[in-house]
Amino acid sequence: MPVLVASDLDRTLIYSSAALALTMPDARAPRLLCVEVHEAKPLSYMTETAAELLTGLGDAAVFVPTTTRTRKQYQRINLPGPPPKYAICANGGHLLVDGVTDADWHRSVQARLADECAPLDEVREHLLRAADPVWVRKHRVAEDLFAYLVVERELLPEDWVKELAVWAENRGWTVSLQGRKIYAVPKPLTKSAAVREVARRAGAELTLAAGDSLLDADLLLAADRGWRPGHGELADSGWTAPEIAALPERGVLAGERILREFLRVARGSAAAGQPL
């Protein structure tokens, strides 16, 4: 049976220049591969070693990029290795099969959101009223599914995100702070639900996962084995769970370590002929 590997992308496998965390002397810094260009500028990177590992992973497992990015944002990433048959975008709102949205899956997601949580317009209006233009740079709605703000972190009031989270909780939404972005996401909109569907279609009996943010917690809990890097919301809060390994590596080297772990377990499972 195939092994399924579902991994978050930003600050898990790929890193902006601000998130690389290259703390070693310059002469010892790893060689980097640019995997995303936006508006004619390089935007995201992984180490060349990580790129080789990811290419190998494509032969050992069903690799599923699993991101909160919109489809448009995801499609500008050029990952090494064979093109993934499946990808999950918009935090589970879109399941791509060979690059095309599965319309039935998207309709089922929309139905759950309509039944189980407050409408997007209500949340967006609250964000517009409550956020201060002094520290908000952008208001965005992603795929008509969730909303987020781009903020100046140094100007963001310390308790504002906590207050927003309490407000959202009562309406069936969750809040996550990732870098300069504050996400408001409906609780039924999860990466784990989409990953379970991919595992069903692929016939996978072993699922591996990695992620760094609170929006990845459900993904990690749904996997048989999981890893989180030494940075991000999950690390900052000390979050852990059985079968989840908290790695010490931070920044782009954490992405390399995560891929090593994926490949080790996937190859070990194949050699044993059964899930580990």
From TrEMBL:
Coiled-coil regions listed in the entry: none
Query: What's in the keyword line of the UniProt record?
Result: Hydrolase
> Has the keyword Magnesium been applied to this entry?
no
The record ties this protein, via InterPro entries, to:
HAD-like_sf, HAD_sf, TPP-like
According to the UniProt entry, its GO molecular function terms are: hydrolase activity
Q: Where are the bilayer-spanning segments?
A: none
What lineage is this protein's organism placed in? Bacteria, Bacillati, Actinomycetota, Actinomycetes, Kitasatosporales
Q: Where is the signal peptide?
A: none
Q: Superkingdom, according to UniProt?
A: Bacteria
- Species the sequence originates in: Streptomyces actinomycinicus
This chain belongs to the protein called HAD family hydrolase
